[in-house]
Amino acid sequence: MPRNSNADTRIYVLDTNILLHEPLAFLSFKENDVVVPMTVLEELDYIKDSKKDVARDARVCIRAMEDLLSDATPDEMLAGVSLSGLGAGENRPTGTLSIYADLNMAESQQIFASDENDNRIINVALHLQTVFASQQVVLVTKDINMRLKAKGAGLAHVEDYRTDQLISDIKYLTKGYHQFEGDFWQRVKSVDSRSEGRDTIHTVPRSLLPEAYVNEFLLDDSKQFAGIVESMTSDEMDILDLGFDRLMSRTAWGITPKNIGQAMALHSLLDPHIDLVILTGPAGSGKTLLALAAALEMVVERNMYDKIIVTRNTPEIAESIGFLPGTEEEKMAPWLAAITDSLEVLHKHDENTKGSMSYIMEKANIQFKSVNFMRGRSIQNAIVILDESQNLTASQLKTIITRCGEGTKLICSGNLAQIDSNYLSAVTSGLTYLVEKFKDFSGSATINLDGVVRSRLADFAENHM
């Protein structure tokens, strides 16, 4: 049982999915007390020995709790062990961690009589709410249905895990560009322009856009000015003049942009100084096609990289790559049909489309890989295309990003309106976390593609369904 402290502190009961989402989540509740039901430990024990990708997170969590509780007596584990001095940063926890032996709960204390794990965890929260009436007892879970069941059973406070949530609403997500109303130059009171080779760079006051960041695009309504923030100081920022028409005329592997969003995306994709490009937007906005066209351009035409590695989250085959005959590429092919579809579009006018596709896949050394087998690798001088990344958590994305070695460019694309994960939403997706965390990194660029260009049918469906 947690300590019976003053009403200013809360008691947080953690569900299993919280500790799988963030293994050290029990350190994130500051001065409040954290309760982990025995049922949660049982679920972690079952998952840690599985072949699922989350098994590693389960083991990390178990080890961390064991380090904390190893010297505690059984009574101390139930009463609560201090978290003081653990964690990192300024907001180190000062509360306690306790294990609740819910397997021994009397039937009179149980609201749910069925022996399902979710019900047993809810029973713990409801019992603590009764015992510690002066304190606020909060059940923390990413399972939406479990939150509804808990509230329906009488639990007053139920929350999602929001410590790693950087924005409160998806409408506040960084778009990667800022559009000025009217003419850009009418807003500029002072400017110092210079030429560097074929480029023109304008130095303007930082007050023009105080919240600007490096590699953010600047546009105006007149469709005359288009630039990108190259660098900045506390007082000034340098803007590379791209020119609206010149930006729209960029090409890669025979593809030209259909709107300004695609033009900005293509510029970032082809820029060798940008190591990470994040493309967000609705289905049919051209994310995958642009990524593949730029990758082929840089690998085959410009010889800037050695190969193209394509991967995506595959939850149904996350436990293993399968025992059916075939190579890893052949087994991954159905999951990466978007890539082969895009490749077919790029070569649809060739006399022999299939022959061209086979030749280019060999020439560009295109490899289809499972996310499950990316851990432990060190990828050098390659372009990595991570498709459908909205279904990945922040820790999963970190695993992939840290695989990228010297000379590797990572392209992450995803549609935050099409999340298939049971425990992720648009604001808690790893893709959202990535956009916000890397917006101040000078080696990354984010572009939100607005508008469906696939077909008028797809456009109507996106806007009216």
Automatic annotation (TrEMBL):
<keyword id="KW-0547">Nucleotide-binding</keyword>
<keyword id="KW-0067">ATP-binding</keyword>
<dbReference type="InterPro" id="IPR051451">
    <property type="entry name" value="PhoH2-like"/>
</dbReference>
<comment type="similarity">
    <text>Belongs to the PhoH family.</text>
</comment>
<protein>
    <submittedName>
        <fullName>PhoH family protein</fullName>
    </submittedName>
</protein>
<comment type="similarity">
    <text>In the N-terminal section; belongs to the PINc/VapC protein family.</text>
</comment>
<dbReference type="InterPro" id="IPR029060">
    <property type="entry name" value="PIN-like_dom_sf"/>
</dbReference>
<dbReference type="InterPro" id="IPR003714">
    <property type="entry name" value="PhoH"/>
</dbReference>
<dbReference type="Pfam" id="PF13638">
    <property type="entry name" value="PIN_4"/>
</dbReference>
<dbReference type="InterPro" id="IPR027417">
    <property type="entry name" value="P-loop_NTPase"/>
</dbReference>
<feature type="domain" description="PIN">
    <location>
        <begin position="10"/>
        <end position="148"/>
    </location>
</feature>
<dbReference type="InterPro" id="IPR002716">
    <property type="entry name" value="PIN_dom"/>
</dbReference>
<dbReference type="Pfam" id="PF02562">
    <property type="entry name" value="PhoH"/>
</dbReference>
